Amino acid sequence: MEKKYKAAVALNCIPALVNLVVSGYVFFNFTGLQFAGYLTGTILGILLSIMWLMQVRKAFGSHAIKLLKITFKGFFVKFIVFIIFIFGVYNLVIFSRTFFAISFFIALLLNAIIELWFYASLTKENN
Length: 127
What we know:
mainly alpha
């Protein structure tokens, strides 16, 4: 499991790097509000990935069902955080909701693939 966890950590760097590179592109080619939205989504995606990795680290040695619960709860938490940011934080800090959503969902999609791969590879390893 330690080997799979290290691979998951390395793979979680991919969405972060993709979004950071695109943030650079957005910075030079779009407005400040669009950049702020994209960068906010990128940072939030990175923070949520780190949270998931920390939860999985705590669950080492647990049954596969516990890891699956962590994954599903993580999706729910990410959605709630997204809603809070769209409706709550937007009133405090002005940014492009569209660019925030694009960035956040890129991170969410890539992280979901990694999380499901991690779970599937662990269950396959246990069989």
